[in-house]
Design a protein that fits this description.
heterodimer; A: 112 residues; mainly beta; 0% helix; B: 112 residues; six-stranded mixed beta sheet; globular
């Protein structure tokens, strides 16, 4: 089945700095990838849809200037959390589909 | 958009017991998946099951699309089955094409 790789798995950063998370489709090409955020003991919430070669589509309430998405190739999408603050601490997960959806292993971001 | 509801929210079992998890969805959907999120956050695809019945070892799933529900059966549960089980659906077409909507999940705890 489709495999999605996500890095890093865990990152701790200082307030005000930026953090980049990578999502790769390993055995298929993905023109579209999806970024989710998950708070403790809650479900996954879609943040944005990443489109290869064009602008990302953000869900209502998601700040596009804070969560920069780049989908420069058919196998790579990146999410950059800019000027991170403690309230941005969360679990971020990417996904793509080649038939069924596959998910990356997630990135646990802690902003101190 | 699609609404997805799961029940029960929590389930505690003794090892060896059987269980049934339910997923109701609000609209006629053409795609549905069941996932298991392990304690490290990884989402594992269990079934892609828009309709019908599938089995994989001790797990099986049934979706009755006309009645807008899906069931996940776990037989002879093991401690490694513990975690959160999510169902998620997405429409075939329209502006929300490809966007997964997750239920709130069922937290399963299996005691030895």
């Amino acid at each position: 089945g489709a495999v999605v790789s996500q890095h890093p798995s865990r990152v701790i950063c200082k307030s005000g700095t930026s953090v980049k998370i990578e999502c790769r489709s390993l055995d298929f090409q993905a023109t579209t990838m999806f970024w989710y955020r998950q708070f403790p003991k809650q479900s996954l919430m879609l943040m944005a849809t990443s489109n290869e070669g064009s602008k990302a589509t953000y869900e209502q309430g998601v700040e596009k200037d804070k969560f920069l998405i780049n989908h420069a190739s058919l196998t790579l999408s990146t999410l950059t959390v800019t000027s991170a603050h403690p309230e941005d601490s969360s679990f971020y997960i990417c996904s793509a589909r080649d038939g069924p959806f596959a998910f990356g292993s997630g990135t646990r971001l802690t902003v101190v | 958009g699609i609404q997805v509801e799961q029940s029960p929210p929590d389930l505690i079992l003794q090892e060896g017991a059987n269980s049934t998890l339910r997923c109701n969805f609000s609209d006629s959907v053409n795609n549905l998946q069941w996932f298991h999120q392990n304690p490290w956050g990884q989402l594992i695809n269990l079934f892609y099951i828009p309709s019908g019945t599938k089995q994989n070892g001790r797990l099986s799933a049934t979706t009755v699309a006309t009645e807008r529900y899906s069931l996940l059966y776990i037989s002879s549960s093991q401690t490694t089955d513990s975690g959160v089980y999510f169902c998620a659906s997405w429409p075939v077409g329209g502006t929300s094409y490809g966007k997964l909507t997750f239920g709130q999940g069922t937290i399963l705890t299996v005691h030895p």
